[in-house]
Amino acid sequence: MSSATAVLALCALCCVGCAVGPEFHRPNSELPATWSFSKTQTAPAADPAALVRWWRRFHDPELNALVEQAIEANLDVKIAAARLSQARAQRQAAAASFWPWFNASGGAQETHASGSGPAAGTSRSYHGGLSAAWELDFFGGNRRNLESATARLAAATATLDATRLSMAAEVALTYCQLRSIQDQLAVAQRNLATQQRSATITHDRRAAGFASALDAVNSDAIVANTQAQIPRLLTTARQTTHAIAVLLGRPPTDLLGRLGPSGPLPTAAASVPTGIPSDLLRRRPDIRSAEANAHAATARIGVAVADLFPKFALGGSLNQQSAKLSDWLSPSARVSAYGPSFNWALLQGGSIQANIRVQQALRDEALLAYRKTVLGALQEVEDAMIASSNEHKRRASLLAAVTANRRAVELSTELYTAGQTDFLNVLSAQRALLQTESELTLSNLALATNLIALYKALGGGW
Predict the structure, then answer these.
(1) Is the dihedral of CA 252, 253, 259, 260 positive or negative?
(2) Strand ranges (E), 9-146
(3) What are phi and psi of 308, to 5 degrees?
(4) Beta strands in 11-95, from DSSP E residues, in sequence order
(5) Residue 102 forms beta bridges with which residues?
(6) Sign of torsion, CA 404 409 415 421?
(7) Which among 110, 200, 135, 257 has a CA at the least distance from the CA of 423?
(8) Residue 417 DSSP SS3
(9) Residue 77 above 50 pLDDT?
(10) What's the mean per-residue pLDDT of the chain?
(11) Which H, E and C letters describe 371-391, residue by residue?
């Protein structure tokens, strides 16, 4: 058989050679057929496109700009993008093992030997050559390594998506918190103005002998108590603005002028296209990342198992060596060699078997992490849906309470001014109004944050 025929035969064997180690299959996850709140959802269609750029459904231009700037500029996102570049380069390195490699070498040497013997004097030598080798992947170790690198690249891609999703949600949540704090500040200032008017009326009635000193002191106390809440809200608003700036990768004070003025709390339609639980397996980036990590860990078992078998290669070299530079290219200075070779680790003290067990344990860990991620995703969706549903009911009750308390403040103030009731009723009504308006503001925030949490839990975006 000629050398060319031998090479072709070996290549054919390489092509049909099996890849050792287990094949990866997506783990079976026990998913419910529907969500527990599926009957109450008004948008059952599972359209992934409806979740892309979900923050735009809040119809707030400032929020849109902040989220999109954070996705581009946030340092965590840039770190995840750098890790994706690493994984891409590592896959390219793994793919390079399928190609033959070539080396070139050369040099000149002058040797000086002292003395008077035959070897004394100066001698020169010139050498250069080419060498090549190609590993034949009979047992699939290189293929499993490429499979693992490809899965790690998929995991890094999903991790970048997950980081972007988390960043979008965090910016949206922080922005909503800022607007809610500004709303709470407006509530406090509005109630403070009402309480100050009541205090003025009380002091006027006290001067005219129609009110007691206790009424005047109580009116001053409620004014001072409301005034005490304002500095705390101002501090929290400033710190929240700082947090948004840092999320955008900017100095803390960069957004003070831009976000300092109060604005409305973003709102969006309550219905979300939740689809069915199995949609999460393809939409949630953290689930896709966990699955890819399990795939990579499974493939690394094959890489370890391949070390049990011999490694075959084709190689050759062509060298030129002469004592004179003028003779360097002559046929007599040429030395060539080629042929197959193999390397087999026969005795390694059990290290190969130990490494296989290590990789199997890492595979088991990755599969457990995948199942844990799926369960956590299901819980996040269910938690967000039930919180959103019940918060809508709570907000409806708070709206009714605020309307009633505002009327109570008006009536009690009118009756007190006319001398038909005591100041305790005015005081009680004002306290109740401040409390319910504050609770309504927090409920509006809860509705927004629950909706953001639901979009995030459903894997919104990318």
Answers:
(1) positive
(2) 101-113, 121-136
(3) -75, -15
(4) none
(5) 132
(6) positive
(7) 200
(8) helix
(9) yes
(10) 86
(11) HHHHHHHHHHHHHHHHHHHHH
Residue among 325, 307, 55, 31 nearest 167 (CA): 55
Q: What is the pTM of this model?
A: 0.81
Q: How far apart are CA 462 and CA 447, in angstroms?
A: 24
Alpha-carbon distance 253 to 265, whole Å?
Answer: 22
98 DSSP assignment: G
pLDDT, tens digit, for every residue of 321-366?
776 666 666 776 677 788 888 888 888 888 999 999 999 999 999 9
CATH for the 29-105+123-457 domain, from 3.90.1210.10, 1.10.630.10, 1.20.1600.10, 1.10.1660.10: 1.20.1600.10
Two tokens, residue 16 = 């049909």
Q: How far apart are CA 184 and CA 232, in angstroms?
A: 11
| Residue whose structure tokens are 């809610």 | 180
Question: Rounded to an integer, what distance in angstroms lies between the CA atom of residue 297 and that of residue 250?
Answer: 38
Task: Give the residue extent of every domain in the chain.
Answer: 29-105+123-457
* 461 touches 172 (CB < 8 A): no
Query: Residue 43 is encoded by which pair of tokens?
Result: 């948008």
Nearest C-alpha neighbor of 295 from the set 176, 434, 153: 153
How many Å apart are CA 372 and CA 289, to the nearest integer? Answer: 13
What is the residue type of 423?
A: F
Interatomic CA distance for residues 232 and 225, integer angstroms = 12
Cα 365–chain centre separation: 21
pLDDT digits (tens, 9 = 90+) for 126-157: 777 888 888 888 898 999 999 999 999 999 99
Answer whether 299's CB lies under 8 Å from 94's CB.
Answer: no
* H runs (alpha helix) in 121-212: 141-207
End-to-end CA distance of the chain: 57
Tokens of residue 429, six digits: 């009504």
Phi-psi region of 273 (alpha: psi -120 to 50; beta: other; left: phi over 0): beta
The Cα 187–Cα 438 span in angstroms is 7
The arithmetic mean of pLDDT across residues 402-421, rounded, is: 92
Reply yes or no on whether the pLDDT at 116 is more than 80: no
Structure token pair of residue 218: 């109580």
- State the pLDDT at residue 14: 47
CB-neighbour burial class of residue 366 (10 A; exposed 0-12, middle 13-18, buried 19+): buried
3-class DSSP assignment, residue 122: strand
Distance CA 144, CA 249 (A): 39
